[in-house]
Amino acid sequence: xxxxxxxxxxxxxxxxxxxxxxxxxxxxxxxxxxxxxxxxxxxxxxxxxxxxxxxxxxxxxxxxxxxxxxxxxxxxxxxxxxxxxxxxxxxxxxxxxxxxxxxxxxxxxxxxxxxxxxxxxxxxxxxxxxxxxxxxxxxxxxxxxxxxxxxxxxxxxxxxxxxxxxxxxxxxxxxxxxxxxxxxxxxxxxxxxxxxxxxxxxxxxxxxxxxxxxxxxxxxxxxxxxxxxxxxxxxxxxxxxxxxxxxxxxxxxxxxxxxxxxxxxxxxxxxxxxxxxxxxxxxxxxxxxxxxxxxxxxxxxxxxxxxxxxxxxxxxxxxxxxxxxxxxxxxxxxxxxxxxxxxxxxxxxxxxxxxxx
Length: 357
Known about the structure:
This protein is of the alpha/beta class. It is built from twelve helices and eight strands. The relative contact order is 0.10.
């Protein structure tokens, strides 16, 4: 195949197949389940079972087949979440079946065979069912952000060419000398450039400083979420209020040295709790600290957990992302140094449950 096709075409074909791999497998399982339904219907009816009972039995078994194959082999939903997935899958499949029945009846009146009507209507309703199943039945996709420094050390245009629109959000690290940074050449105007390159993406700005009010006026016009540290030298509650009053979402960051209890007084003021999971915040390419898994587990047990999201920043890659029971992850070197950054982003988005690594 590689010898016949141009290298660029072959690479593009591989990428598209990878990007739509869940959809393609979903189609295969869907078509197979339809044939199972039809064969069971015909077989049971031939053996004397009433038509309605044969149809119901065939439909039930085909739905269970499609559910199990997608859960086990396509989306790889973990055991703990399969009951929820089954409820959504059964509900969505039931709604789809009702719509299918309504349209199929019309086609049967026009002289179509049962098989023709069943496959024809299923093809029309396919997109409806697939979108709902991806959104609800198998909704464990992580939001992935790519980290960019506001300290003028990276080529933003080059990063844009590498990752395009594949990230769910852009994570901007602004580090000043008060946080022990070696590079204090903060160029906050880079935020305007980042916003221009990704106008359709959320911008999360992580203020790695002990004096966040120094930068708020320059950051707020371009940020959707502003994350400040618990370890600041200012009134944290007031800083969070300032961010919220500006119409932005406030977030709170904790280094590995800060206890989780320190965050509890501020949970009603934030929409995002970010854990830094590396030894030296502000430096890319470090290893993920495995102790963070215990912190994540503890946070997920908090009574007010539903009111905020968790973001992990530091050492995230395709080998550990499936361990992180959180909504957001930030990656820098894992994406930007990958041979195919766009594909790496997709791996991080779906490795949690959808891809064995």
